[in-house]
Structures are given as C-alpha cells and as structure tokens.
Amino acid sequence: MAGPIKSVLFVCLGNICRSPTAEAVFLHKVKQRTLAIEVDSAGTQGFHTGCAPDERSQQAGEARGYSFEGLKCRKVEKQDFEYFDLIIAMDEVNLRNLQSECPEELHEKIHLFMSFSALEEDIVPDPYYGGKKGFEYVLDLIESASDGLLNYITRRNT
Ligand code: 4NP
What we know:
Elements lengths: L6 E6 L5 H15 L5 E6 L11 H9 L14 H6 L2 E4 L2 H10 L8 E3 L19 H26 L1
Parallel strand pairs: 1-2, 1-3, 3-4
Helix pairs in contact: 1-5, 2-5
The structure holds 4-nitrophenyl phosphate.
C-alpha cells in the first residue's frame, strides 16, 4: 500500500467494548507521541448504535488514564473501506465480516490487531459475557498491540 498512514479504524462486533477501548488507548498513545493520526471505531453489528461504551470498559480504561468522552457506537459503513488507511479487527470473526463487505482491491487495509503485538495471543477476546478480569486482559492486549501498531505506522510514514 502506498503513501503515509493518516487514519485508523478499529472494529469489533458491538463497538461497545473492545474497539472503543482500542480507540481510547490508541488515541492516548498518538497524542503522547505527538503524531497526527485520525482514530475511530465501529462495529460489524449495529445492536448498540448511538450508545456510549460499556460501563465496565469505561471503568477499567479510565482507571488506566484513558478517556472515553464523546464515544458513541456506530456500525461499519461502506465508505469506511475507502476512507480509512488501516482497518483493524479484534478477532477472526470481525476480520471475515470485514473482508466479506470490503471491495477486493481494498482488502490489504484490513489486519488483525494482535498481529502488531509480540504477545502470544492472536485475537482480542470478547469480554462482554465475562467478569472484570476479562476487561483488564483486553486492556493489556490493546496496550501492547497499540504500541506495535504505532511503531509500524512510524516506520511506514518515515
Ligand atoms: P464488543 O463486545 O464486540 O467488544 O463491543 C460485544 C458487545 C455486545 C455484544 C457482543 C459483543 N452483544 O452481543 O450485544
């Protein structure tokens, strides 16, 4: 893919737990590094459209210093595939759903988030039906993959 990466879209199923957390963590790290990258998140399903992120995600994230202010759930739209330079899926189901909606020539924009982390995990697991520990684990994975993704973008953009 040619050109610098100026925008990233994080995608999960509901856009209320994992992808808004990724958006909050990644934006925090973008600002820390004084980079100019547009960050957004969306879900492959629209069950919670217009809702704020899950309270449990917000509590766990805010305790680590991340802001969820103004985040509202939305569904992935056709124009997202054109607009965003990178589209980052939390798990293989999200990946396959994105691939099935995305024009073939834009598939190279879609990646699994954990492919940018050195950790053993391949996916960011859905914490929705689990306990508090799951939300902490999601944050651990997202922090690691965000650092890796920012290193990748920095290398690509220089
Ligand atoms: P997320 O988690 O994909 O990380 O936002 C989920 C949120 C809601 C549901 C499933 C997963 N749900 O079935 O309502």
